Amino acid sequence: MNLPTEVRYRPYADWTADEIKHIEENVAKSPWHATYHLEPKTGLLNDPNGFSYFNGKFHLFYQNWPFGAAHGLKQWVHTESEDLVHFTETGVKLQPDNPHDSHGAYSGSAYPIDDKLFIFYTGNVRDENWVRDPLQVGAWMDKDGNIEKFDQVLIQQPSDVTEHFRDPQIFVYQGQFYAIIGAQNLNKQGFIRLYKAVGNDVHNWELVGDLDFGGTGSEYMIECPNLVFVDGKPVLLYSPQGLDKSELNYDNIYPNTYKICQAFDTEKPALLGASEIHNLDYGFEAYATQGFNMPDGRALIVSWIGLPDVDYPTDQYDYQGAMSLVKELTLKDGKLYQYPVAAMAELRGQAENLADKAQTNNTYELEVTVKANSKAELILFADKDGKGLSLTVDTENGQVVLDRSQAGQQYATEFGTSRSCQIDNHDITLNIFVDKSIVEIFVNKGEKVFTSRVFPDTDQTGITVKSGSISGTYYELNY
Ligand code: FRU
Known about the structure:
This protein has two helices and 35 strands. By secondary structure, it is mainly beta. The strands form eight sheets. A six-stranded antiparallel beta sheet has the order 25-35-26-31-32-33, with no helix packed on it. The protein has a five-stranded mixed beta sheet with strand order 4-3-2-1-21, with no helix packed on it. Beta-D-fructofuranose (FRU) binds next to strand 1, strand 5, strand 9 and strand 13.
């Protein structure tokens, strides 16, 4: 939603209790609240931040402007989880209350060090002429959730980057702390800069160089770069804004992409043997995905189900955005798979064979199969005439197509109303997680993924097998 700058950057303390109450009441009126996905209490949720394991729990923060569905003065809201499925908001927040983050506590990452969680983030600072100074800053969170910001700036804006320099991700490689930062050079090309912590002291970062990952610079900015290791292979996840479509075909306003690499050369510095660039997700919205490696080596990721510069039907209710399910990354035959963590299966309740259903509560999982050499169309969020969110699986022609043109409120239609991906001609399994206004579809246990919002009309609650043969199980999900 387009709101004037004065509103978006109004100091938090100036919002009155009455105004906040009004916003909360408005949020509560929405018919589209998710059940088992994390949403902001109020306002806009964007990037996942600080995803980590610390003090025996998982921590996941999110970027938030709490006063409406717009990108304003951002803070970090903290949630924690024991199982990566149930997240509790604790109210601990990293607020933009300091000269080093005066215009927003922007995205970043976290890593446990001794008995504290180190938070590495971008302080968005603007001067009186609205000139931006992006600062990379730090904070500790203790076991009780108290935040102590560092006094000093950890990394200043280098002279060879524009104001677009942000989203530090800290990671460990061979016992050494590194950080990568998304950047734009003076020719307006996106790139990634690598730093290392001198003596492994997170107060002291030195430049290593620009990370060669086989990028072309066709994008104008790389947001939220993340390096995770899957079976020892570096996998780079990133959001290259403006990427040339001759390099990668994508339909969303901005893509979220990845490369699988063979080795990390810390000296050059380079990701050696980088694959071609791939779409991480084929749905209508998934962005700013953040990942980290667990102490046991597992690579976990979570995505913002939303996109920058897009208005959503929930904006009228003063909120926007949701967090995806947490997905585990694996490699099979050199391909990247993403699949919800095993604990998600514990939500499965009563099961029945898939058949047309006039009414569901739009909160369920389907596990279905479409045979090789066939074509089937399934309608989710179906009304009595069978209109809704259409999913066509055509194994013969090797395509999965998701079409939301008949599903409730339309938005962002300038980017098209369908999304598709290629598949091989064999039996295809689909795990489809439906949650009121969210659908996450995992093709072949995560070989391809479609993450999307859909804002159904009130009578769009059914499931219809429109054509072809598709069989499987409908599971109620109990959250
Ligand atoms: C990505 C992003 C980040 C930035 C944050 C601000 O969506 O633009 O680059 O740190 O959002 O909320």
